[in-house]
Design goal:
Elements (H helix, E strand, L loop, with lengths): L9 H11 L18 E5 L2 E4 L4 E4 L2 H5 L8 H13 L10 H12 L6 E5 L2 H19 L6 E5 L8 H5 L4 H4 L9 E4 L14 H16 L4 E6 L15 H11 L3 E5 L23 E4 L11 E5 L1 H5 L23 H15 L2 H22 L3 E6 L4 E8 L4 E2 L2 H13 L2 E2 L1 E2 L10 E4 L7 H23 L1
Helix pairs in contact: 3-11, 4-11, 8-9, 12-14, 13-14
Length: 463
């Protein structure tokens, strides 16, 4: 096909997609006989597919990304204007949007000092790991090289980030993995490993136990999501985060917070960690930084971490010898500047808190109505609904049942998510993350669809 006239023929577009596109997280065997769904337009929280069908997107682009909603002309215009002026220059030099957004970002993150740009959450976390390893060589004789990570957390799809991921099915068939990544227990009280009344502190103490087992002089950092996302939307129990920070300071371990999902307003604060009165050493972010209007990620460090890479000429290898080609693309920070302006000027953090409370209340009502709902947990516009076969035993529903609920909600015009072939036996949590602009009507539409889906699937299971 030598011209682009087929762009106006959606049937031809779907055929081209089916013939040539390799989709993420998808088994393509069914596409031999059916068409993949192709999304062609979005406005606000709504998207339309190639058949003309409308859906309310309750997962912000499928992967918690489109924080300020679809169709934002001001972001598109900001990107367009910047690309015409200067589209790219390698990150060894500065650009106007890169400098401006870095200042805006640091203003929202007291205690942090420097922004390193790249183009995906996986890459942002890789940069952090490299920083930790280089600090180990420069400051600790190569000894403090291990990086702790938590069960159920997810940090990316590269080999190193899979090595640091607590979701076994994500990592299956991709090993062997690099050494030095060590797991610590999850902190989901609904699936409690301990009976302690102060569960949050006990879950954090389990981290110290791993540190002592490995040897404190071998552990350089711990990477944690502030609220676990794809591992089941886990809000850490009270007392957990202060104790984690105390442990990190006790053993001189860098605290790396992965804000790829929670960052830029998702939980009702600029960053998820800001709910917990802690001061991280490294914060990584991507998805909501520009709401998907351009690719951008950031590895943000304290000035103290940055200073570990400043040296005189006595060590020619002493600086952070890293590059991200598309970290030099100016579209990302240009979009991020306008994205942040929208969040501020439209009061979206307050909207997240208000609509998040409504979403939580609605989901709690569904728990009262449907025996299949075992647990509801979340913060802001970021919620999980764990489905069980029996509330007393808390046995999880099979993954196929959870997927059936997602499909039934889609039939009702609402897109929701689910833990997706990540946790053996526990891919049973519905995931909700509507755009920060969600209204009360949007929230009610989402939970009405889930209500109907649970009724339908429950009836089938009992029939």
């Amino acid at each position: 096909m030598n011209d682009l006239s087929f762009l106006n023929d959606l049937g031809a577009v779907v055929a081209a997609d089916r013939a040539h596109v390799w989709h993420h997280l998808s088994q393509h065997k069914p596409y031999e006989t059916t068409n993949p769904r192709v999304i062609v337009e979005g406005r606000g929280l709504r998207v339309w597919d190639a058949t003309g069908r409308e859906f309310l997107d309750a997962v912000s682009g499928g992967v918690w990304t489109v924080n300020v909603g679809y169709g934002r002309e001001s972001i598109a215009n900001a990107v367009r204007d910047q690309l015409v002026k200067l589209n790219f220059f390698a990150g060894a030099m500065g650009t106007v949007p890169g400098a401006v957004f870095a200042q805006m970002l640091i203003d929202k993150m007291p205690g942090m000092g420097r922004v390193y740009y790249s183009n995906s959450g996986s890459e942002a976390n890789e940069k952090a790991y490299k920083m930790v390893r280089q600090i180990s060589h420069r400051r600790h004789g190569g000894k403090k090289w291990k990086i702790l990570y938590r069960e159920r957390d997810y940090h990316g799809t590269t080999i190193a980030t899979l090595a640091s991921g607590g979701q076994p099915e994500r990592a299956a068939q991709y090993g062997p993995f690099p050494d030095g990544f060590v797991t610590v227990p999850h902190c989901l009280e609904y699936r409690a490993q301990w009976s302690d009344a102060d569960y949050g502190r006990r879950a954090a103490d389990a981290i110290e136990e791993v540190i002592l087992r490995e040897g404190p002089d071998t552990v350089g950092a711990i990477v944690l999501e502030p609220i676990t996302a794809g591992g089941g939307v886990i809000v850490p129990p009270e007392g957990y985060w202060p104790r984690v920070q105390e442990i990190c300071r006790k053993y001189d371990i860098l605290l790396h917070i992965d804000e790829v999902v929670c960052g830029l307003g998702r939980t009702g604060t600029w960053f998820g960690y800001q709910h917990y009165d802690i001061q991280p050493d490294i914060v990584t972010m991507a998805k909501g930084v520009a709401s998907g209007y351009a690719a951008i990620s950031c590895t943000v460090t304290t000035e103290a971490v940055f200073d570990m890479f400043k040296d005189d000429a006595s060590d020619p290898l002493g600086y952070f010898r890293d590059i991200s080609t598309f970290g030099g693309c100016t579209a990302g920070p240009a979009a991020a500047i306008e994205n942040m302006r929208i969040i501020e000027e439209e009061g979206l953090l307050e909207n997240v808190r208000l609509m998040g409370a409504r979403l939580g209340d609605n989901l709690a009502a569904l728990k009262e109505k449907h025996a299949m709902v075992g647990d509801v947990r979340g913060k802001g516009l970021f919620w999980g609904v764990e489905l069980v076969q029996d509330r007393a035993s808390r046995d999880p529903v099979p993954e196929g049942v959870a997927r059936a609920v997602v499909a039934a909600a889609l039939d009702r015009g609402v897109m929701i998510g689910v833990t997706n072939r990540s946790l053996p036996g526990f891919n049973n949590t519905l995931c909700l993350s509507p755009a920060l602009i969600a209204t009360a009507d949007d929230i009610d539409t989402i939970t009405d669809a889930i209500d109907g889906a649970l009724t339908e699937v429950g009836a089938q299971a009992n029939g």
